[in-house]
Amino acid sequence: MNPPGFTVLWLQSGGCGGCSMSLLCAQTQDFHGQLRNAGIELLWHPSLSLPSGHEVIDLLQRILDGRQHLDALCVEGSLLRGPGGTGRFHVLAGTGLPMIDWVRRLARQARHVVAVGSCAAWGGITAGGDNPTEACGLQYEDDHAGGLLGAGFRSASGLPVINIAGCPTHPQWVLDSLMALAAGEFGAEQLDALGRPRFFADHLVHHGCTRNEYYEFKASAEKPSDLGCMMEHRGCKGTQVHADCNTRLWNGQGSCTRGGYACIACTEPGFQEPGHPFHETPKVVGIPIGLPTDMPKAWFVALASLSKSATPRRVKLNAVADHLVVLPTIRKTRLK
């Protein structure tokens, strides 16, 4: 008799479904086959599974009754607690019960609880503005611990909610996390201080950015089509944001910065309301407020001044163009 697979239940709450759409871009020609090969059994996903209606409700009830083992409860989208904490803004069809009630009950049965995307992790876009739906994350409300399940929540494995943050998440962040859990190779030491898997959260978006030469010389883009670094004027937060987007490329070849868009910090709590337009860098007396991680302001000012004074003409001109206008000089590289 074959041992049971690592069972996964995927629920969608308050969100756009973008993380599921991203998941389908995983680098495999056989999505379900990849899960099976990793020993993962997808019990149900609202878009990828055939059962619906009473079949799904029966599945949920079997999990609650202990008749169906659940290894990982994956929740996509924020948890809608409104109005007035009742959760009645989002009722699971056919049950008459708010989604937040189902999530609370299922979380107590699951060996692991996984927040897929920044909405499920922190509240995300859905919690922006006046937040009339009282949206929050599973264990965080922006960067404040708590959320729906509470700061002290631990799943049956002893782990807090695993926050695979991103808007949307990279498909491999999700699959690699689930495969590590299925293999029994994921413990508390694999989570950072905000509960994000460290295999991607220990990196910065800045790592591997194709615009790093421009950053080094503080040769900055001034308009959307420019090739230069987008930190100084265009709102890019890649030097501060925890993710490996420029080394683990999207669809095998892209990232926001490679596509000409500034990093808006979508893996971080509160990214949806930065306090300034996404395409602008807020400054005080000409110095960006958001400095690179771990860099003191005085060092940055000194480095920026020195770098700008040493910027090669090639880099300076290319930074404010939409194509290379000055090519690198050909030089001999031998020592003799």
Structure overview:
The protein is of the alpha/beta class. The protein folds into two domains: 6-197, NADH:ubiquinone oxidoreductase-like, 20kDa subunit (Rossmann fold); 203-303, Cytochrome-c3 Hydrogenase, Chain A, domain 2 (Irregular). Helix content is 24%, strand content 11%. The chain contains ten helices and eleven strands. The strands form four sheets. Strands 2-1-3-5-9 form a five-stranded parallel beta sheet. Strands 4-6 form a two-stranded antiparallel sheet. The longest helix is centred in the C-terminal third of the chain and has 13 residues, at 297-309. The mean pLDDT is 94.
Q: Structural class per helix/strand content?
A: alpha/beta
Q: What is the number of beta strands?
A: 11
| Number of helical regions | 10
Specify the overall morphology: elongated
- Our estimate of the beta-strand percent is 5-15%
What is the top-level CATH class of the largest domain? Alpha Beta
Quote the CATH topology of the largest domain. Rossmann fold
Distance between the termini: 69 Å
Mean pLDDT level: 94
Give me the CATH superfamily of the largest domain: NADH:ubiquinone oxidoreductase-like, 20kDa subunit
Radius of gyration: 23 Å
The level of helicity is: 10-25%
Give the SSE order as H and E letters: EHHEHEEHEHEEEEHHHEEHH
Write the CATH architecture name of the largest domain.
3-Layer(aba) Sandwich
Number of domains: 2
The residue ranges in which pLDDT falls below 50 over 5 or more consecutive positions are: none
- Please describe the biggest sheet, giving its number of strands, its sense, and whether it closes into a barrel: 5 strands, parallel
Largest sheet, spatial ordering of strands: 2-1-3-5-9
